[in-house]
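Quick one, C-alpha cells below. Sequence please?
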C-alpha cells in the first residue's frame, strides 16, 4: 500500500515539475520583455511538484509496512 502511494506521489510530483518548468521557461525569446512565463502559476506548479516528492518520502517512512 505504501509503495503505491509513494510511486503515485513521486510520479505526480515529477509531472507537476515538468509542466511547471516547461511552461515557465521562455523558449525562443529574443528580448527580456518577452521572458514572462506562458502560465502565471508555473513556478508554483514546480514548487508543488518538489513538495509532493518530498512528501512521498515522508509518507513512505510514516506509513506502517504490511506484516508478512
Amino acid at each position: 500500500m505504501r509503495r503505491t502511494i509513494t510511486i503515485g506521489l513521486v510520479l505526480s510530483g515529477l509531472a507537476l515539475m515538468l509542466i511547471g518548468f516547461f511552461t515557465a521557461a521562455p523558449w525562443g525569446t529574443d528580448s527580456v520583455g518577452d521572458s514572462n512565463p506562458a502560465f502565471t502559476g508555473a513556478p508554483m506548479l514546480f514548487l508543488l511538484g518538489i513538495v509532493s516528492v518530498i512528501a512521498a518520502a515522508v509518507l513512505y517512512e510514516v506509513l506502517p509496512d504490511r506484516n508478512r
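The mean pLDDT is 87. The chain is about 65% helix and 0% strand.
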